[in-house]
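Consider the tokenized backbone below.
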């Protein structure tokens, strides 16, 4: 068991993990298990996004970083299932702090771009706004401002004042860099 702060995390031996996956495949339960896992990660990412603006950053990162392997697995799964594209977009976008401040900018950029390419903005404006906001958090210079402005416009269209305010923070950072 690993203890991170007040949280105890248990790990499986790789041989146990492989055995469990083999049994899930054999019973046909792997697909539903993967989907439930991705849904859990989506809920986790949504909670993490809310806490990003409320908690001290170091505390936020300590809570989120241990789930990185789960996040990667969920994003890989959603990337292989077009019907789960919106879920993947929300996971990638909601974890902007992990990409930007967890020294995972290149990885985050790949996940965010893939998520943006997999959805139709007009059909999923909240997911698109979340992605643009996340991209604005990891981009630099003029591109950061373009992404932040697009995110702001979508959040304004959705009348989400809290996210509009959060996006203005990103936009101000972008304007300071230009």
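A designed sequence for it:
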């Amino acid at each position: 068991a690993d203890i991170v702060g007040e949280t105890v995390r248990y790990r499986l031996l790789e041989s146990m993990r492989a055995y469990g996956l083999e049994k899930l495949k054999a019973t046909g339960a792997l697909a539903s298990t993967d989907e439930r896992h991705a849904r859990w990660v989506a809920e986790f990412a949504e909670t993490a996004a809310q806490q990003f603006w409320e908690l001290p950053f170091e505390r936020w990162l300590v809570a989120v970083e241990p789930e990185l392997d789960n996040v990667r697995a969920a994003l890989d799964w959603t990337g292989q299932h077009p019907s789960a594209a919106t879920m993947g977009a929300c996971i990638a976008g909601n974890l902007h702090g992990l990409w930007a401040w967890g020294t995972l900018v290149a990885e985050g950029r790949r996940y965010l771009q893939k998520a943006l390419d997999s959805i139709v903005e007009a059909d999923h404006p909240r997911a698109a706004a979340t992605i643009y906001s996340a991209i604005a958090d990891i981009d630099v210079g003029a591109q950061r401002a373009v992404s932040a402005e697009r995110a702001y416009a979508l959040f304004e269209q959705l009348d989400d004042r809290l996210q509009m305010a959060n996006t203005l923070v990103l936009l101000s950072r972008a304007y300071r860099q230009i």
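DSSP finds ten helices and two strands in the chain.
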